[in-house]
Amino acid sequence: MPTNLFDLSGKVAVITGSSRGIGKAIAEAMAAHGAKVVISSRKELACKEVAFSIRAAGGDAIAIPCNISHLNQLDDLVRGTLNQWGRIDILVCNAAVNPYFGPMATISEEAYDKIMGTNVKSNLWLCNKVLPGMAERSDGVVVIVSSIGGLKGHDKLGVYGLSKAADFQLARNLAIEWGRHNIRANCIAPGIIRTDFARALWEDPQIHRRVVETYALGRIGEPEEVAGVAVMLAGRAGRFITGQTIVVDGGATIR
């Protein structure tokens, strides 16, 4: 049996939204398994701090700030990575926004466009910039961090869930279009994870109690528990998995 199922040595991984939360945990885990990682989010200082901490722990990381909703900055992210390391082997589309909490009936056009543009269009545009290089080498991995919000109806997160369901289909389409080039594309759909992004859903004791009552494991998740799945999908362990959505939700969707 192979012993290097999770070894990412020599791979270059770009992770969007990786200065905190799930993205940061994925970057740290991939670096710990040998990958050279690019830390990217809107804030340059935050990116540099994470990259520094990874290097201090013995990993290899650089910081390239990027607001993925600005398509010209995606060019800078790809160009900067190629200038530094010459290739991108693993692309993790993790950055996302949700500026609106309420029914779809009252969402503004601006909020709708921001959610769909950032959470779906920017992921597609970034993939279109990265995957041709992967195809030239006949090897590559895309991991899109989605949400169980794309699997369930919700009266306050409807458009966010719509964007996350679109990411499931994006991964399936990428898997079909690029599979013959040995490129795999998958989604991870986390439940509520202890991050700043989901703070409103776990910091309030009453909301937290109602949430964990519906989770089979009786608790919410931690960022590293999503990161482990990302490493699996990026490594040899996941090389026959493509076009799939891996649910990481402590049993929230089985009830």
How is this fold's topology laid out?
Layout: E1 12-16, H1 21-32, E2 36-40, H2 44-56, E3 60-63, H3 71-85, E4 90-93, H4 109-137, E5 140-145, H5 158-178, E6 183-190, H6 199-202, H7 205-213, H8 223-234, E7 245-248
Parallel strand pairs: 1-2, 1-4, 2-3, 4-5, 5-6, 6-7
Helix pairs in contact: 1-8, 3-4, 4-5
Determine the strand fraction and express it as a percent band. 5-15%
Major sheet summary line: 7 strands, parallel
- CATH homology-level superfamily: NAD(P)-binding Rossmann-like Domain
Kindly provide the name of the CATH class: Alpha Beta
Distance between the termini: 36 Å
Q: How many helices in DSSP terms?
A: 8
Q: What is the CATH architecture term? A: 3-Layer(aba) Sandwich
| SSE topology string | EHEHEHEHEHEHHHE
User: Strand arrangement, largest sheet?
Assistant: 3-2-1-4-5-6-7
| Basic shape | globular
**Number of E strands:** 7
Q: CATH topology, which one?
A: Rossmann fold
**Average pLDDT, all residues:** 95
Structural class of the secondary elements?
Answer: alpha/beta
Helical proportion?
Answer: 40-55%
User: Can you tell me the number of structural domains?
Assistant: 1
> What's the alpha carbon Rg, rounded to whole Å?
17 Å
